[in-house]
Hints:
Elements: E1 20-22, E2 25-30, H1 31-40, E3 42-54, H2 58-74, E4 76-84, E5 88-101, E6 113-119, E7 131-137, H3 141-151, E8 163-168, E9 175-184, E10 187-195, E11 199-204, E12 215-220
Helix pairs in contact: 2-3
Amino acid sequence: MSKRVVSFLSCFILILLGGCKAELIETKIKTSDIKRAISQGMTTVPFETKITIMGNSKDTRQQIKSFEEIIEQYVELDDVEIEKSMMGMDLLIEGNIPLVYGKTLPKNRTDPWALFLKKNNVKGLSGSYPYTLTLLPTRNFGGFKNKFSELNILLTPSASQPVSFKMRNNDKSEFNVFSGGAMVNGEAHAIYTANVKRKLSLTMKGGVYDTAYPVIFFRLD
């Protein structure tokens, strides 16, 4: 795994485990993915994540294995690895997350989080940016959260997650984005707008995003 970052495995964000740290939720979204989701209702896009847990005892490894078993029940996984690190143990995960057009995850999906595309209802923005993209918990989040709590009462996955949206204009679309509170190429922006010709990475974490859901406003023609 070359990229160790992200997705809702940040649910493991469970710093509450006292030493459990997750990287960003990193998602990779192409303009063709967005168009497919809008036309078909849903598609999936890749995600990666890395969680570091302090300690390397047998109990720590067993708890990580239990985490993995829970995740497998809910998430569409491609690869899961456990590696030793200087800080303890790393749980490395790659998989796919739904990209849904509308408000509801399809009934046949068990994902605790999903990326949702919706029509923009914010006055003053909807004309220039008719759509929004956000990472939200689904109806399955409660059950997912409870399984972690049953494993360890200190474990309480957060509904809001730090995320990096890695977007690529792969079909020469007219792709304009607007966002508030984002890191772009290592620089912090209170407000950010761009005409995406090729690639763009927006990172939203910390501060207000500890409890608020990240939102990107966009136009795609």
